[in-house]
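Appendix B. Raw example, untouched.
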Amino acid sequence: MSTIYITQKDATFKVQGQYFKVFREEKQRFYIRITNISQFIIFGNIKLPKDVMQIVRLNQIPVSYFTENGEYVGRLENISPSPVKYLTYQRQRLHDIEFNRATAESIIWAKLHNQQTFLQSWTRYYVDQTIQRALNYLQLLMDNLSLAPSIDELHEYIQEADKTYYSAVASLLSFETSDSHITAKEISRFLDLGNQLLHQYVYTHLQTVGLHPGYGILYRDGYHELPLAWDFSAEFRAPIVDDLVLNFVRHLTKTNGNGNGNGKRIHSHIQRFLQHWEGKLKTFVLHPYAGEVSYRQCIDLQVREYISSLLGDVEYYRPLALKFHPNHSSFTNIAENKKPVLSLVK
């Protein structure tokens, strides 16, 4: 399944038979079978033609909208009329305090663990008191998760951890961009964009396997749209989004950025970021139970692990806890050598 990123205003689209085709400057740029499209992500004020929108509705393909600068605007949801496969089980577990507490604790532990591992991977380049304090505090919180009396208390652990962790990330970013033209606002925009792309990707995957995204474990309040997607995103933000942004910023710093004019530069950066994002999802890591798999497969494995716990096939939900290997050059353990195949309108 492929994500279609639309970033160019002068691109045109056609539906011919079972295929979605993209044209630019009267030349066909690429085509893809409609059944292989998982979602559309549109940047800027670009409207899909009526025949494409009809295909979107008939195939329940999600569409997300961002500004030209990469700020999230909203999404068009196409809900399937068919019953959600695991909805009955999700409703049954809704009031299972023991199940929800155990699952929430597992997710939070993995989130903190991966945040700590991510920071450790970058201390080879730079470390200061802020980073060391964050490493120590994350370990302290992990050791004391079982002492939290409720999920609400666990939320406080997340909030405290994020304050300390993102202070350390800011310190790392400040070091990496000390001689760069890249602003803190641009970096924040990349982090927000990455988190939204991750959330949307997880959401489309939940739809595919038959989980209702509205039945979350950690995020249940009205401030978090599609809370179950945010639950699964928690384990992946540090290794996928944060690591991607830091590497991307380092790459821009080395190349001194490109693009003439602020608007063109931002547009160029977003196109590059999307390429790096797709490449990141195709990156291979060592999964603690499945061995060498891509991040896409990791997300699928964690979702299916949750389904197994939901059905009672396994005793508890096993979270994704990645390990840092000092001999490797980045947080990810094994990089895929193949060039990513992108569905990016250029």
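End of appendix B.
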